[in-house]
Amino acid sequence: MKKPARVFSEVIKHLFKKPATIAYPFEKAHIFPNFRGRIDFDSSKCIGCQMCVRVCPSKAIEIPTSEHQPPAPAQVEGQPAVAAKKKFDCIMKLDHCVYCAQCVEICPKKALIMTQDYELAQTDKAKLRRHYK
Amino acid sequence: MSKITIPLGPQHPALKEPENFMLVLEGEQISGATVNLGYNHRGMEKAAEGRTYLQNLYLIERVCGICSHSHTTTYITNVEELAKCETPKRALAIRTLFAELERVHSHLLWLGVAGYEMGFETLFMYTWRDREQVLDCLEMLSGNRVHYSINTIGGVRRDITPEQKAGVVQRINYLIERTNYYIKLALEEPTVAARTANVGKLPLDVAIERGAVGPTARASGLARDVRKDEPYLIYNELDFKLITHNTNDVFGRLVVRALELVESYKMIKQVLNDLPEGPIAVKVPMRIAPGECVNHYEAPRGEDIHYLKSNGTDKPERLKVRAPTLANLQSVAYMLEGGWLADVPLVIAAIDPCMSCTDRAAVWNPKKGKTEVYSWEDLRKLSIEQYRKRGVDFTRL
Amino acid sequence: MELITPLAYLLIFPGFLFLAVYGLFLQWVDRKLCAVMQNRMGPPWFQGYADFIKLLAKEVIVPDEANTRMFRVLPFFAMAAIITALLSIPVWGTALYGFQGDLVAVIYLLTIPTVTFFLAGWSSASPYSTVGAMRVLTQLFAYEVPLMLSLIGPAILAGTWNITEISAFYAAHPVLIPAQLLGFLAALIALQGKLERMPFDIPHAKNEIVGGQFTEYSGRLLDFFLLAVDMEMVVGAALLNAVFLGGALGLTGPAAIAMFLAKTLFITFLLALLKVLMARIRIEQMINFCWKYLAPVAMAQLVFDIFLKYKLG
Q1: Which positions in chain C touch B122 (Cβ < 8 Å)?
Q2: Residue C160 included in any domain
Q3: Residue C66: which pLDDT band, with cuts at 50, 70 and 90?
């Protein structure tokens, strides 16, 4: 059965409906809680094992040792001296990252954290190289 | 009337990806068509040789945006077969769920593209609006709309919670209702029939001869579907029909895809209803045992074939991808000839081409400043030289 | 003063300026309506004006192969013909320059833009524009006859070839307006074809032949062509309003202008509705449709009008 202008009733119905699209920059898109966004870094947890660097498919992560190392804790009487815990930075190249979150999965100390940030565009390329301290 | 040659592409509003069709026109009718490929070559197979198996997952995912799950699943089946790993049942079920969700998303996308190519923008807008629902499902389950990255060697990365299950079922119910409406619309709207019926004819014998795959072949009455012919994942436990149509034209391809959507919804519900309990992944060592492996998979566009060769290290020695569009492109030249210029975009769109999957054979020569397409003899000569350097002589083969 | 008044008529109201501003406004109304019906947001109200100003500032590129003089002059020809056509169509009750037989003159004046589209495509000398140009002409033969036939019907019933008098006749006999329904619908569809809008945007179907006849046009020249198309929509809607809907319905002054705006908006709505309802058809299907269905419908209306005229005396 052919009916000319079959979509007529649907089209008229939509005259009185709100648009399905959202006015994006003014109104934020809905993001699900485990969306894979920018990777964040917690320096206090990192042990510098470089697992994330090795597993990253796009070579987006570097884990250098920090410039300012914390001082060794004061020696407690009667106990052997404790070495200072080494501190590590993380350089995350957002323009290389493919947001697969494999590094988050592989990290043994949960030092890398997946966030839901997705508005990462920059006009300056240098800003895409995030240095987490 | 004098003949004019019109280039369709590599940059043309009808084409979403660069490819080139040279059309010889007599008035509005096409008397000859040639297909030129090679504008989208990215050297993925070579790149895969320099990465570990795990890193390759994310590379292979980017062979094509729409079939991202198809390519990784085919690849990972190869890897797991070589590593002789027992993938948990629950992981296979989740992979099947993603495969069908991806098919829904791809077919809805195609429906919109077809609407756009036939100048029916309302259909385009509605289907793409509804496609958001399935993209939401995928984002909710995997964390991304397009590159799901759900596969990992030995299983899947994320489990499905009961709330997520309910969310998927609710969205699928909405989609079932909408899809039934689109099927009615496509069958009853006269302008859709006028644009698609008897357009881009591909008779059964030509479809077999030219090796058509997927919905293109099924619309020519060829009952060929890897999910039925050689079930992988958990397809042997699912109850679904193999959809074929015998009109051999774009209308048939539209009907096949629309009815496949309905079958996919059915399968998604089946998988969700009896999701096996158990772990979602097992540990697999970084180094994969040496060997060769070939696997195929029914991607939304047709049969996808991967070949993998391992040499015992943590990186593959060779990976070869045969994407479905390459198989279907042979039929496009046949379908275009004798047709109308106005139907060209629709005929090309009807195989659901994905050039980023397909292009792998052109060479850009910076010295000469032009692209060269190697013939079979050239490629053979090159490969013999290449292997002679490694100390293997293939000249007598 | 004697010189200023006609100049003001020509350049400001209802001539060039009004047509341009109202044409771009109708373009927005059309786009917005389509967007809402397709469940989208659509552009903001100033989109048409912003696009117009932006294109004015762009570089004009004339292809080497093209016939330069023709290429540059054609957009202005199209616009001039459309503005001239409006002079005979009543905007506030009476037309600026009405005469016996102006209906035929308007129909011919409205054909000129189409011919300039053809020439524009032809003189661009590129494959896409050549195909577009051929399609423009082919399409002209499809919709022109139904359009003319359906416009003649009301004229015969009114017994005059003057558009102002026709609308005055229907304003005096509103009972006869519904009797013209078939002819009105036929004219509406033919007008859609004349304006080359979906589903009849075959000459510049973007996913087949890129920009069709306008492929090689850029900058100011393209801008004026697009403006001419928008103006043609106002004039087309005004013509249908005057011939089929009784024009201002006997009102005068600002009320008549308000009536004019309301009715042209209504016709724009109908045109927008036609745009979203169907898939674009092929050129040969368009010709088949126009000659098999549209022309007989218009003809039936014409015969009915002659019969009615005979009955009414």
Answers
A1: 37-38, 276-277
A2: yes
A3: confident
Q: Where are the domains of chain A?
A: 32-67+83-133
Number of domains in chain C: 1
Q: Which two tokens stand for residue C44?
A: 């903001």
Residue carrying the six token digits 């000398």:
C125
pLDDT digits (tens, 9 = 90+) for A57-81: 888 898 888 888 877 777 777 777 7
Q: What is the complex's ipTM, to 2 decimals?
A: 0.87
Please, are residues B321 and B45 in contact by the beta-carbon 8 Å criterion?
A: yes
Pick the CATH number of A32-67+83-133 from 3.30.70.3270, 3.40.50.2300, 1.10.10.10, 3.30.70.980: 3.30.70.3270
Which pLDDT band, with edges at 50, 70 and 90, does C272 fall under? very high
Residue C199 near residue C272, CB atoms below 8 Å: no
Q: pLDDT, tens digit, for every residue of B64-94?
A: 888 889 999 999 999 988 888 888 999 999 9
Q: Report yes or no: B251 and B196 within 8 Å, Cβ to Cβ.
A: yes
When pLDDT is averaged across residues B126-147 and rounded to a whole number, the result is 90
Cβ atoms within 10 A of the Cβ of B246, count? 11
Q: Does B38 touch chain C (CB under 8 A)?
A: no
Whether the CB of B363 is below 8 Å from some CB of chain C: the reply is no
Q: List CB contacts (< 8 A) between A5 and chain C.
A: 277-278
Mean pLDDT, chain A, whole residue set:
85
Q: Cβ A101–B149 below 8 Å, yes or no?
A: yes
Binned at pLDDT 50, 70 and 90, residue B362 comes out as low
Q: What is the DSSP string of A62-99?
A: E-PBPSSPPPPPPPPTTSPPPPPPP-B-EEEETTT---
Distance CA B51, CA B58 (A): 10
| Angle at the Cα of B86 from the Cα atoms of B82 and B89, rounded to 5 degrees | 135
Considering only CB atoms, which chain B residues are within 8 Å of C193? none
**Predicted TM-score (pTM) of this structure:** 0.87
- Output the DSSP codes for A26-52: GSPPP--TT---PEEE-TTT-----HH
pLDDT of the residue at B396:
61
- DSSP 8-state symbol, B201: -
CB contact under 8 A, C277 and A11: yes
Domain with C94, as residue range(s), is 61-312
Task: Return the closest-CA partner of residue C40 out of B321, B230, A11.
Answer: A11
Four-way CATH pick for B52-310: 1.10.10.10, 2.60.40.10, 3.90.226.10, 1.10.645.10: 1.10.645.10
* CA dihedral angle for residue A26, residue A32, residue A37, residue A42, rounded to 10 degrees: 110
Distance (Å, rounded) from C-alpha C82 to C-alpha C80? Answer: 5
What is the C-alpha to C-alpha distance for residues A73 and A127, in angstroms, rounded to an integer? 35
CA distances from B232 to B99, B236, C143, C251 (A): 11, 7, 56, 76
